[in-house]
Amino acid sequence: MVRGGIVGLRPMAPDTFQVMAKPSGAACNLHCRYCFYLDRGSLHPGPGAPWMSDEVLESFVRQQLEAQAGPEVGFAWQGGEPTLMGLDFFERAVALQRRHARGRLVRNSLQTNGLLLDDAWGEFLKREDFLVGLSLDGPEALHDLYRVDKVGRPSFDRVMGGLAVLKKHGVEFNTLSVVHRESARHPLEVYRFLREIGSRHLQFIPLVERQPSPTDVAAGLDHAPPPGLDTDRPQVTGWSVDPGEYGEFLVSIFEEWVRADVGRVFVQLFDVTLGLWLGYPSGLCLFRETCGDAVALEHNGDVYSCDHYAYPAYRLGNLLREGLGDLVRGARQRTFGQGKAETLPSCCRACDVLPACNGECPKNRFLRTPDGEPGLNYLCAAYQRYFRHVAPAMRRMAWLALHRRPPAEIMTLGIPGRAPAGSHREAATG
User: Fold this and answer.
1) What pLDDT, on the 0 to 100 scale, is given for residue 269?
2) Which residues, in sequence order, are bridge partners of residue 294?
């Protein structure tokens, strides 16, 4: 989740890392058919599961603040559904943050489906300046296609009720929209809906999940774990986005945004892309050359290399027995992160889009290249289409920003080679 927009782009501070804390583990009051985390509960059985104890909470807050450099430290609460922990849990978390902050600014973000939000939550989230990420996939029909509860009932109306609470109390929020096979075919319908309900910070998350093997199913997993380079099982689930359609989804939304909404609506991918053109490191681990600075913390204190890699093979340790900073900065996690760059196939290394995408997330690298080399990203075609299409506009907006002019001026100047909206000629500036 992000605060601010284009003008707020900042590189990640040195010697920092992110922890996606899952205090309720995989527990959720929805049963979204595409959710990749629901089956993780089978990996953490035992008494008290899946709720984070006060011992783990205190250790996490203290160690997170001790291990991070700089004047500002962030806490990201995710799930499952973190609001299942109740307000008392988060009141305790905030009190612990104040106790251990040593004068530094603490920022909290909470990703939620919104179903449990009420006035008490709204008052708390506003008072404590939480940034809320609300999971909302688009208009009712597209949202309810997969986002249902445990008895199959749709969730759209209840999510909109949660949104109303956030608006009533003036809570800062982003919308997080999973782009699945069907919603990818309706880009402007999704974008315009989110804009019309008042979302000004939008994140689009492409849905890519492989079919589980018989071995995965026997282990209680509904989705295949991240691939190794030896994979020959590229089959994806029926709800996974089509790469070509996802590329067109991004381009269609970008074309509307760049003509009418720059500086008014902030799409995370577009902000990150502009940051790349300005010379910033990517604000998303997806597009960094290496990864490993965003780990997942389970309810029992187990730390994993990434929430997409929350499987036994990627368990780094437990913060009740080992230091959080030591686990994140240790050789094993550094090797995991460096592997992102070292496992790129040769066709990626020669690609003109590589400086922007860096092969995207390793979890999606389960295709073979045309010459048979393993490790090609499933979304390769989508990112080639997107990054090549937006390059002229990004160059112009970067030029504007570097000359201390708002990137929003592109809406009147236009994109090189194309006339601005409402004009028959292209301005020469930039």
Assistant:
1) 98
2) 18
CA atoms of 100 and 142, how far apart (whole Å)? 43
Cα-based distances in Å from 201 to 4, 275, 408: 8, 16, 16
Residue 119 is encoded by which pair of tokens? Answer: 């006035």
Mind listing the pLDDT tens digit for each residue in 302-330? 999 999 999 999 999 999 999 999 999 99
Structure tokens given for 185:
């075919």
For tokens 């029992």, the residue is 300
Q: Phi, psi at residue 18, to the nearest 5°?
A: -115, 145
In the prediction, which pLDDT does 218 show?
61
DSSP state of 224: P
pLDDT at 10: 43
Low-confidence ranges of the chain (pLDDT < 50): 7-14, 229-231, 422-430
180 within 8 A of 146, measured Cβ to Cβ: yes
Q: Smallest Cα–Cα separation from 313: which of 336, 288, 287? A: 336
Number of helices and strands (H, E) in the chain?
15, 12
CB 44 within 8 A of CB 299: yes
Please say whether the beta carbons of 109 and 130 come within 8 A. yes
Catalytic residue among 39, 144, 307, 326: 307
- Report the alpha-carbon distance of residue 72 to residue 95 in Å, rounded: 17
Query: Looking at residue 106, what is its pLDDT?
Result: 98
- Is 326 a catalytic site residue? no
Task: Tell me the C-alpha distance between 299 and 315, whole Å.
Answer: 13
Tens digit of pLDDT for each residue in 248-260? 999 999 999 999 9
**CA Rg, the chain, in Å?**
21
| 204 CB-contact burial (10 Å; exposed 0-12 / middle 13-18 / buried 19+) | buried
Residues 6 or more apart in contact with residue 225 via CB below 8 angstroms: 216, 309, 311, 313
pLDDT at 226 (0 to 100): 74
The predicted model scores a pTM of 0.91
Q: DSSP 3-state assignment of 41?
A: helix
| Nearest alpha-carbon partner for 18 in 292, 349, 225 | 292
